[in-house]
Amino acid sequence: MKTITLIPGDGIGPEIIEAVKFVFNEMGAPVKWEEYPAGETALKETSELIPSALLASIQRNKVALKGPITTPVGKGFRSINVTLRQMFDLYANVRPCKSTPGLNSKFDNVDLVIFRENTEGLYAGLNYYDERLEIADSVSRITKKGCMRIVRAAFEYAKQRGRKLVTVVHKANILKQSGALMLQAAETISKEYPGIEWNDKIIDNMAMQLVLRPEQFDVIVTSNLFGDILSDLCAGLVGGLGVVAGANIGDDIAIFEAVHGTAPDIAGKGIANPTAILRSSVMMLEHIGEESLAKTLSAAIDRTLAKKELCTADLGGKASTMEFARNVIKQMELIE
Ligand code: NAD
After folding, report:
1. Beta carbons of 83 and 50 less than 8 angstroms apart
2. In angstroms, how far is CA 301 from the centroid of its own chain?
3. Ligand 1 in contact with 265 (CB < 6 A)?
4. What distance in angstroms lies between residue 117's CA and the mean position of ligand 1's atoms?
5. What ipTM was estimated for this complex?
6. Which residue CA neighbors atom 24 of ligand 1 most closely?
7. CB of 222 within 8 A of CB of 122?
8. Atom of ligand 1 at shortest distance to CA of 71?
9. Does residue 270 have its Cβ closer than 6 Å to ligand 1?
10. Where is the Isopropylmalate dehydrogenase-like domain (predicted)?
11. Could you identify the atom of ligand 1 that is nearest to the CA of residue 9?
């Protein structure tokens, strides 16, 4: 049994996490959950945004699964997601975006993975306001170490998964120093991976290429802000935020998460789509060495998504969150 920290989160979080617990239980996954609130829910229950017991649990278990958490825009507390990433140095945000056969999406030939640097750039927390001059500064700080480790993570992933091409995305024509750091890192690290090709693209061209011919990309590595935007763009190519997985990975600790938000408009109705968190759970199973279970769960999710009538309303079906979870288990039984 592997103990994993579970953060249901806010809004639809507890509903989609319930679906994961059901599926894991039904498939007999060797996982024991240690459940903690965070964010708004935690503030109400414990008067702490990120309870210290939760932090100790993540530190101890090294692996967590997290539902979405509310972040107020422009005011209030700092994003819990960003805080957790920085606190545990989860420098690689990994987002696989692959077309699902039968699912109505913009493209049916996409199979790419984005590696977004997760701790630096404009998210380093260097925000200042000079009241006298009425000037706001958000400093984008990028380090050589930060570039080297995210580029290495992308190449290593490509090697382990038999992928052939790494594309470095930057804006080195304008952001000369910071862009150059990422390119130099790729120049150096690519020499250790002779079987893997690499190229680079300027962010604006990349955005256009992705909407025109996404099939040309394999593994993409980029800085924090560009990665944030591109990973949502790529999710849009394959069916949207409701169906893509996400993980925040460091050298020691990994947090797997639903990349969509708390969906306040449908929270409490039991109709949220649990696909994204289930697919993140597939990544989590791979991470803890349960490859065979991961494969089976992934295939069962794909089979469910291929039949509209088995899906939730956002995908054109009528299933509730828990009905979708039961449909996944039924499809799993049909595979075995
Ligand atoms: P959102 O992703 O919550 O919702 C956007 C739209 O997508 C809504 O119409 C919603 O109903 C729908 N949607 C999202 N997930 C769905 C699902 N699983 N099934 C069916 N429909 C789904 O984005 P938002 O409205 O911009 O943000 C709401 C809140 O979520 C904000 O407080 C924001 O800070 C937070 N948020 C958290 C995370 C996170 O914790 N990782 C990510 C993004 C937004």
Report:
1. yes
2. 17
3. yes
4. 22
5. 0.98
6. 261
7. no
8. 34
9. no
10. 3-328
11. 40
Residue 246 CA: nearest ligand 1 atom is 41
pTM of the model: 0.94
Report the DSSP pairing between strands 197-202 and 165-170.
parallel
Q: What is the pLDDT of residues 86-112, one digit of tens each?
A: 899 999 999 999 999 988 888 999 999
CA 79 to chain CA centroid, Å, is: 15
- How far is 24 from 32, CA to CA, in rounded Å? 10
| Identity of residue 229 | I
Q: Which amino acid is at 61?
A: N
Residue 66, both tokens: 């997290």
Structural contact between residues 277 and 246, judged by C-beta atoms closer than 8 angstroms = no
Task: Using the atom order of ligand 1, give the atom closest to the CA of residue 275.
Answer: 18
3-state secondary structure the chain: CEEEEEECCCCCHHHHHHHHHHHHHHCCCCEEEEECCCCHHHHHHHCCCCCHHHHHHHHHHCEEEECCCCCCCCCCCCCHHHHHHHHCCCCEEEEEEECCCCCCCCCCCCEEEEEEECCCECCCCCEEEECCCCEEEECCECCHHHHHHHHHHHHHHHHHHCCCEEEEEECCCCCHHHHHHHHHHHHHHHCCCCCCEEEEEEHHHHHHHHHHCHHHCCEEEECHHHHHHHHHHHHHHCCCCCCCEEEEECCCCEEEEECCCCCCCCCCCCCCCCHHHHHHHHHHHHHCCCHHHHHHHHHHHHHHHCCHHHCEHHHCCCECHHHHHHHHHHHHHHHC
**Tokens of residue 255, six digits:** 């947090």
pLDDT tens per residue, range 44-103:
888 888 899 999 999 999 999 999 998 766 555 667 888 899 899 999 999 999 999 988
